[in-house]
Design goal:
heterodimer; A: 170 residues; mainly alpha; two-stranded antiparallel sheet; 2 strands; globular; B: 281 residues; alpha+beta; Thrombin, subunit H; 6 helices
Chain lengths: 170, 281
């Protein structure tokens, strides 16, 4: 099919495998988890519609769930992110709008914009994920600490990867 | 009708969102039930294969430590074997004593390698490379050198997923070895070195250093499997039970090999209890 389609499929596999083979093992101080696969949904092209985003998010989430033995939890949080992504993109449109045909990347919109875009969505994802896993608010502060640490870790890693990947694309 | 369709189409994103979320919630609930979804977990071949590769790489860096542990275990097993032989000789000398081989050999062990393990989540699971083909069944106990590890949740042909003791949903019946009082251990989700011991009544005096072992009432573990040692006890005026922190005997971060315990008499015991009490829930 189209080139864009092929890129999305390869991206899907890369993020899924990175998550389950590398980042699943990478937990800092038992608090900070790196759930890099969120970046896949965040970085799909601007004009991807919510339906596609949600279905891709659902499949990717299920795939990760399979490896975490947590059927449904990652899928649920990622579908939430996929649903809200385009609204959030609308809210934080920079002056003069987005350039047509570009992905919402750091290279296209700058570091400040990218952080405003990424961090709240990652935070939301982690909040849903960890509270669902904990099965309620019994361990509230411990869970909050986990969410904070993981948000920093995941967002940081996404930004670092943007710099690594962005260099070759420019 | 047309307006309804138009309405649905207008908000199709929201409705898809709703449907997908409901699906997720349904799956989460399903998976929480014991022996829930059997396929979408690390016991399926693809997932276990990928996890196994990762674990192989990790194990390579831990070879020295694993070797040390195995030789240590060998040593202790040899020692036990020696003791056992002494005991058997003693028993055969006492010809008239009852020596029921069914009871002596009621447990059988399946050795397995850990291919996936976690300790930092709220619900931790362990995947091992033995499954239904080797006789592993859901509900069996998993130990490592007589230290409690967890119980089998789901099996595929060649792999099994184990609910680790480090899982906030998992409870096990245990007893304080010194006093013989029963309680329940359940992980609180924070520190993987400690587990909470609950339901020890006020009148019992647990001491720091007491051993905690699995009880005879335990539906999963054989009796006398080592769980841990009491490290701290608290009892306030209004509490009905002690709050006890138990340091786990097994370091879950270092798990490389485990044994699945097959109990030959479990079925007999369960079916006998069924007759009296009825089907377990």
């Amino acid at each position: 099919m189209t080139r864009g389609f092929l890129t999305s499929v390869i991206g899907f596999l890369v993020y899924a495998l990175l998550q389950v083979m590398l980042f699943q093992e990478l937990v800092l101080f038992r608090y900070a988890f790196c759930l890099i696969y969120v970046a896949y949904i965040l970085l799909l092209p601007m004009e991807t519609n919510s339906l596609t985003l949600m279905i891709l998010g659902f499949i990717l989430g299920l795939f990760v769930d399979m490896f975490y033995n947590s059927l449904g939890i990652h899928a649920s949080s990622l579908v939430m992110v996929a649903y809200l992504r385009n609204y959030w993109l609308g809210v934080i449109t920079p002056q003069g709008g987005y350039d047509a045909g570009l992905a919402p990347t750091l290279a296209a919109n700058g570091l400040q914009w990218f952080m405003v875009y990424t961090i709240p969505l990652v935070f939301l994802h982690h909040t849903i994920l960890f509270f669902t896993e904990a099965g309620g608010f019994g361990l509230f502060w411990f869970t909050v600490l986990k969410i904070m640490a993981s948000t920093v870790f995941t967002s940081g890693m996404i930004i670092v990867l943007q710099y690594l990947a962005g260099g070759s694309r420019r | 009708m047309q307006r309804l369709l138009h309405f649905l189409y207008e908000y199709r994103a929201f409705f898809t969102f709703l449907i997908l979320q409901l699906l997720c919630v349904w799956m989460i609930v399903q998976n929480n039930q014991y022996q829930g979804a059997q396929f979408f977990n690390t016991s399926n071949r693809v997932a276990a294969g990928v996890s196994g590769t990762t674990q192989d790489v990790k194990n390579y860096f831990a070879l020295r430590r694993i070797n040390d542990e195995l030789s240590e275990e060998n040593k202790s097993l040899r020692q036990k074997l020696e003791q056992r032989e002494q005991a058997i000789q003693y028993l055969t000398l006492k010809r008239d004593s009852v020596f029921d081989t069914d009871i002596v050999e009621r447990f059988e062990f399946v050795n397995a390698k850990v291919v996936n393990n976690s300790t930092a989540r709220f619900k931790n699971f362990i995947t091992i490379n033995r499954g239904a083909e080797e006789g592993v069944e859901p509900g069996m106990a998993v130990i490592n050198d007589n230290r409690a590890v967890g119980k089998v949740k789901a099996v595929s042909d060649h792999y099994s997923v184990i609910i680790s003791l480090l899982n906030i949903d998992e409870q096990s019946s245990v007893l304080i070895k010194r006093t013989g009082h029963f309680g329940t251990v359940q992980w609180d989700g924070t520190d993987p070195r400690f587990i909470d011991l609950k339901y020890i009544p006020r009148h019992v005096v647990p001491l720091v250093g007491d051993s905690i072992v699995t009880s005879d009432f335990n539906a999963v573990f054989p009796p006398n499997v080592f769980v841990g040692i009491i490290r701290q006890t608290r009892l306030s005026e209004s509490d009905q039970f002690h709050e006890i922190d138990v340091e786990l005997a097994q370091d879950f971060g270092k798990l490389a090999y485990v044994q699945v315990v097959k109990s030959r008499l479990k079925r007999e015991k369960d079916s006998l209890e069924n007759i009296i009490i009825g089907e377990p829930k």
